[in-house]
Amino acid sequence: MADLRIEFAGIRSPNPFWLASAPPTNSGAQIHKAFEAGWGGAVWKTIGAPVLNVSNRYGAWHYGGQKMLAINNVELISDRPLDVNLREIRDVKRAWPDRAVIVSAMVESKPEAWHTIVRQIEDTGADGIELNYGCPHGMSERGMGAAVGQVPEYCEQITRWVMDVAKIPVIVKLTPNVTNVVYPARAAVRAGASAISLINTINSITGIDLDTLETSPSIGGKGGHGGYAGPAIKPIALNMLASVANDSEVRQAGLPISGMGGVSTWKDAAEFLLLGATSVQVCTAAMHYGYRIVEDLCDGLSNWMDEKGFGTIAEFRGRSLARLSDFKDFDLSFRAVARIDPAKCIKCDLCYVACNDTAHQCIDLMDASGAVVPPYAWDARSNGRAEAVASRPQPVVRESDCVGCRLCYNVCPVEKCIEMAELPSGRDSVTWDQLVKANPAVAEEWDAMEAYRKKMGIEVH
Amino acid sequence: MPKTGNEGLAEHIPPLTAHEAFVEANRCLFCYDAPCAHACPTHIDIPKFIRKISTENLTGSARTIFDSNLLGATCARVCPVQELCEGACVLGSDHKPIMIGRLQRFSMDHAYSRGLRVVEVAAPTGRRVAVVGSGPAGLSCAGELARRGHSVTVFEKRELAGGLSTYGIISLREPVEASLAEVEMIRSLGVQLETGIELGAGLTLEDLNGRFDAVFLGLGLGATTSMEIAGEEHVVDGLGYIEQSKLTPEGPKTGRNVVVIGAGNTAIDCATIARRQGAPQVTMIYRRSEAEMTAYLHEYDFIKKEGVAFRFLTQPVGVVADGDLVTGLRAVRVELGEPDASGRRAPRAVPNSEFVIAADQVIKAVGQQKPALFTKLGLATERGYIKVNEELETSIPGVFAGGDCVRAKNAASTVMAVQDGKLAAEAIHKYLRRAEANHG
């Protein structure tokens, strides 16, 4: 049985799964329930400046019959009175000494305001503070949230104000609504923050109602951008996490990172941990299915760790970061081709149309005699199950022309039907960086590139 | 005990709800050059109409179906989809095939329930075509010709149009209303319909050839084949029995102990009706064995659940009657010998094996006759069916035919008839253009 415990900037948690600062952590009663379900920690929904909320505040994106691939919200920070929140935080921490209770905060950009809120939070006995520099709507219009996170100087300045008085760990939560998330992360490092968390929600408009032509959802006939979250944003979050985790300044400072953005399953969580997260925060999946999902988050992760022989999370944290590289360092001689297993193929021909319409035209349809036939070759007067099934040609990859683009592999609906077979290219391993250093002309002149290709026997289709 | 009376014969398969249809449509892989579309005799672009359900473009979905098959509402209900589109679905191998028939019905119900007119008609060509018979072949041909701008008149000998869809398909599979709605849709394309007019009885082929530029015959077949057994006059005709179940409020007169002769799809329909009319005992008898049954496997599975008994290898030889009152059916046991002309093992009566099956009603559903009319009309025939060439043209130039009346090969079905009507309309259209060119 794997040990799921973590220590995050001095904060202990029985497992790496924390509920993110959001509606699931709005009240003491909710967090009691969540801890009963097994969550390792919770980041209290942001407390701070007074606000009022609106109805129809959550929109969602559904696709292909799958509900809520992403959620979008224009909910503000906690609309419950500050003293009620502070009292409940104190109660929760007393009742759950072994869980991570972190309080998200956002106040006006004045040192006194931040000093006050930090002291109020510390009085509750909470384990840490998360600075909300990410809220992309409403609060940002008032100079808070993303309005801070998008300007590294503001980010650094406010973090310094906090660090002036804070005695418990301080996590800076970053907004993804920037060109390069590394700069605000470095600002947090410079200001002496204890940790970083990312990503907050992404600016988005969920959609337009095609009956009313209003935004969806409509808030009394109006709508606007909100914060986007959920399974659809996971790849964006992974990239931002990795770019921060691999940044030399962040690494040097040794700041732990709490990763989030679309984590729905233990597999997602494992990927965040492999890319350098120490704890993982979850919101949308809990909003979709309830707190109970934490059971499989823990169980699945633990079983996977057992299978992999990882006793603790520290043993594999960040393990995949070394696999990240820039294009210039990829091996240009690496070669893979697609192979379709005829025994598994159901002949939906999705690979065929994808390859021939939009990729590299190297999948053929072959009839039983091995002859290449065009699609729709059947006689319009033939019909029936037996005839349609028996005469259906088999898609086959023309390996000599396959560039190994992997589109067919991605569209194939059958597990392990298409394999990307790694073949020797017959060429020595070389990266773009190495190639251009040795032969700078290839990057500047097409003639030089053609000559290089010819010499190396690289055919382009 | 199955449901009885009108409720018992109400449409058996419920329509999909909008949610069910959306979920099922999203399960479709949207295959390229899909096998389901090949398997469909009318080659409906099935992935396309299903994708349009998933994008909530139901008008476009219905139009996609009509593009290939004007009788999509009937086909959605009566097609043996297991043998056709669904049987060829790539998900059938290790999942459940897509419910193509029910999705098609969903799109068709959408169009019909809203009175959507999505089939467009070309400008009038001034050419006139007569269609004889308003079954699936005739309606399909008439509609396809009207689409191309030809002026079409359909002649129907019965009171109602629709042919077997109206009179011969058990309402459990297709209610009369669905068939009549389709007739109205075809009429809305400008097709004239004249009912109560029979070819060979007042109306001649010469009349038609004189008044029209081309003729299509979708005549279907004749009455149930005679079994040539003693007391056959006491035997109820299966097609008439089904017709009464569809068109009379009280349904057909049904005994308490009913024997149905035959093991095709019509025989199964008769047995179903008898059970649902309240007959406690229904027995199907067939002279060959289970393996040679012509009924679709899924229909056989259905009837077994209806509580119907079977006696295979049993050949009727006479009806036992006391005056008009049937008391039983005399039969002999049968053995199977070498394969016959149909490729099935030939039945041979076992000597001295005669016995009597108690019954108070005997219904026969042993196939339809090839009418003598075909030869009377001067048409060349093939094994009793109207002989046609690849273009579905008969031995008389300008006279085309399709549907069950030409089905000398392969099993007859509604969808094959629809495709015949469509192919014949294409051929007639070409014929008319050739004629026009020749007349300069």
How are the SSEs placed, and which strands pair?
The complex is a heterodimer of chains A (461) and B (440).
Chain A: E1 6-8, E2 11-13, E3 17-19, H1 28-37, E4 41-48, E5 58-63, E6 66-73, H2 82-95, E7 100-106, H3 111-123, E8 128-132, H4 146-149, H5 152-165, E9 170-173, H6 182-190, E10 195-198, E11 202-204, E12 207-208, E13 215-216, E14 226-229, H7 234-245, H8 248-253, E15 257-260, H9 266-274, E16 279-282, H10 284-289, H11 294-308, E17 335-340, H12 350-358, E18 363-366, E19 372-373, H13 385-390, E20 394-397, H14 407-411, E21 418-423, H15 432-438, H16 446-456
Parallel strand pairs in A: 3-4, 3-16, 4-7, 7-8, 8-9, 9-10, 10-15, 15-16
Antiparallel strand pairs in A: 1-2, 5-6, 6-14, 11-14, 12-13, 17-21, 18-19, 18-20
Chain B: H1 5-8, H2 18-27, H3 35-39, H4 46-54, H5 58-68, H6 72-78, H7 85-88, H8 100-113, E1 128-132, H9 136-147, E2 151-156, H10 164-167, H11 176-187, E3 192-195, E4 198-199, E5 202-203, H12 205-211, E6 214-217, E7 236-237, H13 238-247, E8 257-261, H14 265-276, E9 281-285, H15 297-304, E10 309-311, E11 314-322, E12 325-339, E13 345-349, E14 355-358, E15 361-364, H16 373-376, E16 381-382, E17 385-386, E18 399-401, H17 414-438
Parallel strand pairs in B: 1-2, 1-6, 2-3, 4-5, 6-18, 7-15, 8-9, 8-15, 9-10
Antiparallel strand pairs in B: 11-12, 12-13, 12-14, 16-17
Helix pairs in contact in B: 2-4, 4-5, 4-8, 5-8, 6-8, 9-17, 13-14
